[in-house]
Amino acid sequence: MNRTATLALIERYYAAFNAGDGAGMLACLFDDVVHDINQGERQSGKAAFAAFLAHMDRCYRERLADIVIMASEDGTRAAAEFVVRGEYLATDEGLPPATGQTYVLPAVTFFAVTNGRIERVSVYYNLADWTAQVVG
Length: 136
What we know:
6-stranded mixed beta sheet; Nuclear Transport Factor 2, Chain: A; 4 helices; alpha+beta
């Protein structure tokens, strides 16, 4: 895989995200994908990723803007920086109560890519910033 193909793969992944197309996102992943959840646990496999997406859809409505994607020359690593524009729909366990609050949050994701599929997704954002926005 090369840089251009990896950039296209990550673009497809985020286009599916913004379209609310979980199946499209899953199609970009290895069956045993590793998912590092921000300030949370590491999960493995498409089934766990699909469950995570379902949970996120229940608790949040999000759209990503200002997406900038970068990739290594050999296409094995990529990163994306973006702004999350969201609405907190249902209370997520261990977090403040949801009342439809909106938030704007910078975030980044790192990817490992092999043979045209994403094998690792590691997402990072500032949870304290998010909390301040939904509590304040």
